[in-house]
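Our preliminary data section would be incomplete without showing what the modeling component actually yields. Below, a chain of 249 amino acids is followed by its predicted structure, encoded as tokens that our downstream tools consume directly.
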Amino acid sequence: MLKLAVYGKGGIGKSTMTSHLSAAFASMGKRVIQIGCDPKADSTINLLHGEPLRPVMESLKEGIEPESIEEISKIGYGGVLCIETGGPTPGLGCAGRGIIATFHLLEDLELFETFKPDVVLYDVLGDVVCGGFAAPIREGYAEDVLIVTSGEKMALYAANNIQTAVKNFEDRGYAKVKGLILNHRNVENEYEKVEAFAKDHDLSIIGDIPRSNEILHYEELGMTAVEGDPEGEIATIFKNLAKELLHDE
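Predicted structure:
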């Protein structure tokens, strides 16, 4: 089983990258689970044709203990099983605890034993990996981390924080950084800046995603470009990245 956690600066496009990867894996016939670990609960919306998914934390806050996977999930494009952890009411409580509570529930419901996925992707909120937001890599749920960045200063600053946090867990047998996904923002000398960052941190750029109106167009329609234009440039890039990740695994 390939288990990936996707991290990066808020607003850098983690959900877009994750859902496109999920769609790419699914288009190759793989059984995929995508778990959105963000109080906004919008990670999977473009796999579900724009239909929001009720977050697990909404049920738990109401004192409802889900008794089946079907109660907390929806099937999206290509058969991807979509789950959103959600979080507390804004300003009340710790969002990280929502992730931990959801993961414990998924264990109780034997998600992985029942669904038997080939690939699991965690789309994780946050610029700094701490508390509950570290759960996907700290508790053994994910084995590899993909860091989404651009050439913007704050995106690279966040990538550095994430890389540092993950390295602090290395000697405990937790997840490791697999590489960077460069999500272009058309910054001057963008590739060179990210390439220099990767070299300084002994990382590789494993995904190079161009700034594309195609992605924006299909997101407006509530889908990924992998679904909207399966033979297009963006779909091909993500399918090639998915193949590379599977080959390495």
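Residues 47 and 76 are 5 Å apart (CA to CA). The radius of gyration is 17 Å. Preliminary results of this kind motivate Aim 1 of the renewal.
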